[in-house]
Structures are given as C-alpha cells and as structure tokens.
C-alpha cells in the first residue's frame, strides 16, 4: 500500500482557500512558531 504526504507552504489566506476547496481531503493547517505569518498545509489523504 502506497501513501503520499504532500506539504505546501504559504500564507494563511491562500492555504485556507485550498483547504476549503477540498473538504473531502484530510488537510491540516499549521502555523510556524519561529516565523509569524508563515503557514504549512499538510495533506496525508494519499490523493
């Protein structure tokens, strides 16, 4: 069984729009602790 993890970096507005556009995926939005305003979107849905 192959699984894929995808990580995307960007600002909160863009990543939140991506997350809202794909509710069928298990997307998690993280905020960087070291840099204010930096976010990471984690997709471990395998799609």
TrEMBL record:
Gene3D superfamilies: 3.30.70.100. Keywords: Monooxygenase, Oxidoreductase. It comes from the Bacteria. GO terms for molecular function: monooxygenase activity. This is Monooxygenase. It comes from Lentilactobacillus parabuchneri.
